[in-house]
Structure formats: C-alpha cells, structure tokens
Design a protein that fits this description.
Length: about 280
C-alpha cells in the first residue's frame, strides 16, 4: 500500500492506496509545530481506527507547500513506516513539462493536480483548487503546465472582512439562496459566495479565451462542490484529485521496468523505548 500526504497551508490530507483504490483518507489541520512523534502517533492511531496495517505500507509520497514541516514528515515516514519519503520537488518525474518563467515557483500541489487532471480527463484542462488561495492551473493537450492564476480563498476573504471591520460578524460560507440579502449575515454570505462564483466563472472565461480553445474544467479543494453548484464552467468536482496525482507520480518514479510493480526499500522501523515515569 502507498501512503500519500498533501500538506497545504490550512489542511493536511492523507490517503492510503491499495493499488489504484483509495482505501482510507483523513483531513487534518496543518500543524507547523508538531513533532515527529506527535505526527507519528496521530498517524498510527488513524491507521488503527481504520483497521489498516502500517507494515503493509511500502511507499510514502509527500506534496508540501509548507517547508517547515517537510523534515518532520520525512522523519515520521522513516521512523513510523520504515520508508524514505519521496517529496514532489525538482528532479521528480511527473510526465509534465512546466512552461513558466521559473518552474521552482510553482507549488508542488499545483503540478500534482495538473498531472491527475490530465490523466483522468485529458487535455487541455483547467484545475481550480479551492484552498487557502483559489488557484487556476492550465494544462495543454500535450500535458504541458502552461501557467495559472492565484486569487484569495473564500476563508481568508471572510476572515479579512471580519478582522478589518468593527461590526461585521463571522458567518458560515454558504449559498444564501438569493443575492439581495435581508440581514447582515445574508449580505455577507451573498458577497462571499456569489462573488466567488462570478470571479471563478469570469476567470475561466478569460482563460479559455486566451487559450483559444475549449478546455475541461475540474474543481477540487474545500469549497469545490459549493462553488461548482453555481458555476457555469466547472464540469467536474474531484475531492481526491491531489491524492490521485501523488499516486500517479509515485508510479512514474517507482514502477519497475518489467511488470510495473512498485519498488521501495524498507528502512528498519525504529523501536522507541518506553519512558520511565517518575512517581
């Protein structure tokens, strides 16, 4: 089995694949200050609750946009799973050419999403990822990453409105059902929701016009389904697009030349001695 980890600024998503089947997944808050053991114990407990055997994991792949946690997660993979983690970074085979001014600036998750979208839906395609930021990533019919757009996410837009006004409250981000609100909460909800829908559709229309051709639009991330319901351009929502992309990239880097079986070197897992408790 393969453990996939997608580290975002707000959430960290873990997935376990048995072959191509995603058999378990969890969404956690990204905790920059957690130790190796804290991540290890948490992951071990999640495996236990899901009835999964840690010893069955023969690979770990990580996509991260939060560098401070990379060493911690790498050590967690080594100590608790006996695996050297593969990080999606320059030098890793993705099958995708990155045609931007500085490829090092592109977040690993955006490349992973592009690989997954092209693999599942073909190209050209556009991935809209609703995370801390709303990102748009454009992939050509030849599996080339052409570039994209970054806009503020719904969550940080809502928090900024609350933080910089004296009387406006925090509200649930949802479709209020109509644009013209009748109280402060629905005024804010209409602004956040319909503002996001129209921004996304407007941006997608501009991207398609610049491409000069039609493209498949795939949405992923926290508010993907919510915004997709009001969008004219989003055709597919795929909650696990990033995890699927990580599995595909793992296979590209670790498939044996004959037979296609994944190859991984197991590192002896460290047995941590029990600590004596002073009474």
């Amino acid at each position: 089995m393969l453990l996939t980890v997608d580290v975002g600024n707000t959430n960290t998503v873990l997935g376990v694949f048995r072959g191509e089947e995603l058999v378990a997944n969890w969404r956690l808050t990204t905790a920059r200050q957690q130790t190796v053991d804290e991540y290890g114990v948490l992951t071990r407990n999640l495996f236990t609750l899901a009835g999964l055997d840690r010893d069955a994991i023969n690979g770990v792949i990580i996509s991260s946009v939060v560098p401070p946690v990379n060493w911690t997660l790498g050590e967690m993979a080594r100590i608790y799973f006996g695996q050297k983690a593969l990080f999606v970074e320059p030098g890793v085979k993705t099958g995708m050419s990155v045609l931007v001014d500085n490829p090092l600036e592109v977040g690993a998750d955006r490349i992973v999403n592009g690989v997954a979208a092209f693999h599942k839906y073909g190209g050209p395609c556009i991935v809209v990822d609703f995370g801390t930021a709303i990102t748009f990533d454009v992939v050509s019919e030849r599996c080339e990453y052409l570039g994209g757009v970054i806009a503020p996410g719904l969550g940080i837009s809502s928090e900024a409105l609350f933080a910089h006004t004296a009387k406006l409250p925090r509200v649930e981000i949802k479709d209020p059902g109509k644009v013209i609100g009748t109280n402060t909460d629905t005024h804010i909800q209409a602004g956040l929701y319909y503002g996001a829908v129209d921004m996304v559709d407007g941006m997608l229309a501009r991207i398609k016009a610049e491409l000069g051709k039609e493209a498949t639009v795939v949405a992923t991330g926290g508010q993907a389904k919510l915004v997709a319901r009001g969008s004219k351009h989003i055709q597919h929502t795929d909650e696990f697009l990033t995890l699927i992309g990580l599995r595909i990239i793992w296979d590209k880097n670790h498939a044996a030349e004959s037979g296609g079986a994944a190859v991984a070197v197991r590192i002896p897992r460290v047995s941590l001695p029990a600590k004596k408790v002073q009474r």
